[in-house]
Amino acid sequence: MTEKPTYTLRQLVYYFLKLGTTGFGGPVALVGYMHEDLVEKRKWISEENYKEGLVLAQLAPGPLAAQLGIYLGFIHYRILGATLAGLAFIIPSFIIVVLLSITYTIYGGLSWLQAIFYGVGAAVIGIIVMSSYKLTQKSIGKFTLESLKNNWLLWVIFGSSLTITLITKREHILLFICAGLIYMFYKSPQKFWRTKKTYSLFMLQILFFNDEQTILQKIAIFFIKAGAFVFGSGLAIIPFLYAGVVTENHWLTEQQFLDAVAIAMITPGPVVITVAFIGYIVAGFSGACVSSLATFLPCYLFTVIPAPYFHKIAKNESIKTFVTGITAAVIGALVGAVIIIASKSIIDLWTALIVILTIFGLLFIKKISEPIIILIAAFLGILIKLML
Question: Secondary structure of the chain: what % helix, strand, coil (to 5)?
Answer without folding.
Answer: 80, 0, 20
